[in-house]
Design brief:
binds uridine-diphosphate-N-acetylglucosamine, 460 residues, binds calcium ion, 9 helices, nine-stranded parallel sheet, alpha/beta
């Protein structure tokens, strides 16, 4: 929208969080609170996007580094919401249009609601429009005071009279302002209240006294505008976000056996007919295909899983890909850079790191495969270890198509096992094995005939 400027307030101390991390950097649904606000703002395609930072400013700017088109304004001292917005005044010198003010601690707000707010503002020709909601528990929020049905001012909880505290209509802390009268009026706000802060909410009373039109858009409930001021509210809002995500996925044909114990972050995608069992965590930019089975206790982070994949109980999978029809687990650990091929199998207590396991290949039990390129139809026996680290650098193991690695073998990298070659069980392979060869690299067995009888005789 042209002539629309968005400002997000994210400078506050967030005292009630008792945290060394800036409040707006706490996460719900895997994304920081300020990122939620930014995402909502971006959907409106505003002309400019400004974030006011202050308390732990370096943390917040660092977290938003690389976000295109975001301007930062510093509020060096946190003297209240009006003071915060006032810091952006130089940016809007001579600029006309509307300013939409968002709070960095209100992550559930939807772009549709903001469009409604902007529309109502435009239709009424108001100087300011306030987003409000009817709350069953208004405690902690500013209250909308009306006279003859019209908003006359906003009073903060701490400054409210007993009668005002009974008001159920609360201030969302989200507003649209015409730029022209805004900053001159803002400069007249005083800090004469219980907290000694400059309250943006005082602008409403000030406008009304100057006969500037103030409108409201009233939401039916407070869910969407819930602000986060404490860890308790953080957990409550996170639960709502989680529930929303689970419902969205179930709506698209994903079975979630127990939504109460399923943790799927905002950006995760899951295909239809996939079944997700209890206690599963899907995080970051994870994509799961259709008709998969993700068993209990699995955690998958930033990974891509094809269709019809089975991930058995208690696997941890990070920055990896698993192709269609593969089976993994139980108790497998896929560390970053692992690629499990089509119909391949990774069994229990197998760890992969930066390893490609080719089509139809198997590593079914107790193995460590690191920095390895493993071809198709390879059988990796139980207890196989790639010795990829010599204390200085990581070395590569290559196992070509169709090779057979006997149980309990160590492959000392860099080393190559040729196509179709065999490695005898218990071998320590330190030299390349040519294609089709059998490598035996262990002490030869010696049998001492009649040993037990001899022992017995000696004892007599
Ligand atoms: C504010 C409103 C209250 C409303 C509620 C909705 C005021 C005075 N009160 O109260 O009416 O019901 O939001 O959630 O506006 N911030 C700064 N600099 C500051 C102070 C705050 O940038 O000096 C930022 C915070 O980081 C936060 C936002 O402004 O993102 C709101 O501040 P907060 O202290 O959470 O205000 P509330 O007490 O929740
Ligand atoms: Ca707040």
């Amino acid at each position: 929208m042209s002539d629309l400027h968005v400002v997000i307030l994210a400078a506050g101390k967030g005292r009630r969080m008792h945290s060394r991390v800036a409040k707006v950097l706490h996460r719900v649904g895997g994304r920081t609170l300020v990122d939620h606000a930014l995402g909502t703002a971006r959907a409106l395609e505003a002309t400019s996007l400004t974030v006011v930072v202050g308390h732990l400013a370096e943390q917040v700017t660092a977290a938003l580094e690389g976000e295109p088109g975001v301007r930062f304004v510093l509020q060096a001292e946190q003297l209240g919401t009006a003071h915060a917005l006032l810091q952006t005044a130089p940016l809007f010198d001579g600029v006309t249009g509307r300013l939409l003010l968002l709070s960095g601690d209100v992550p559930l707000l939807r772009p549709e609601t903001l469009r409604r707010l902007l529309e109502a503002h435009g239709a009424a020709g108001a100087a300011a429009t306030v987003l409000s909601a009817t709350a069953t528990r208004p405690y902690g929020y500013g209250r909308i005071v009306r006279s003859g049905g019209r908003i006359v001012r906003i009073v903060e909880e701490r400054d409210a009279s007993a009668a005002e505290r009974k008001i159920k209509e609360i201030n969302a802390g989200i507003y649209v302002f015409e730029l022209a009268p805004l900053f001159p009026a803002m400069r007249r706000i005083a800090a004469s209240n219980a907290q000694g802060e400059y309250y943006l909410t005082d602008l409403v009373g000030l406008y009304r006294r100057r006969h500037l039109a103030v409108e409201t858009v009233v939401l039916e409930d407070t869910t969407e505008i819930r602000g986060i001021n404490s860890r308790i509210e953080l957990a409550e809002v996170a639960a709502l976000v989680r529930q929303g995500k689970n419902e969205e996925l179930m709506g698209r044909g994903v079975t979630i056996v127990d939504p109460a114990t399923t943790y799927i972050e905002q950006d995760v995608e899951v295909g239809a007919d996939t079944v997700i069992h209890p206690g599963v965590h899907l995080e970051g930019r994870t994509r799961i295909g259709a008709a998969c089975e993700i068993h209990a206790g699995v955690r998958i982070v930033d990974s891509t899983i094809g269709d019809r994949v089975v991930v058995n109980n208690y696997c941890v999978i990070t920055e990896s890909t698993i192709a269609e029809g593969a089976r993994v687990g139980p108790f497998a650990h896929l560390r970053p850079g692992s690629e499990v091929g089509h119909l391949a199998k990774v069994g229990n207590f197998v760890e992969l790191k930066k390893t490609i396991l080719g089509e139809g290949s198997k590593a079914n039990h107790l193995a460590y495969l690191g920095d390895a390129v493993i071809g198709d139809r390879v059988n990796v026996g139980a207890g196989t270890i790639t010795c990829n680290y010599d204390g200085v650098r990581k070395n590569q193991t290559v196992i070509e198509d169709g090779a057979f690695i006997g149980s309990d073998s160590q492959l000392v990298a860099p080393v190559r096992i040729g196509a179709g070659a065999y490695v005898a069980a218990g071998s320590s392979i330190t030299k390349d094995v040519p294609p089709g060869a059998l490598a035996i690299a262990r002490a030869r067995q010696e049998n001492k005939e009649g040993y037990a009888d001899k022992l017995k005789k000696n004892e007599e």
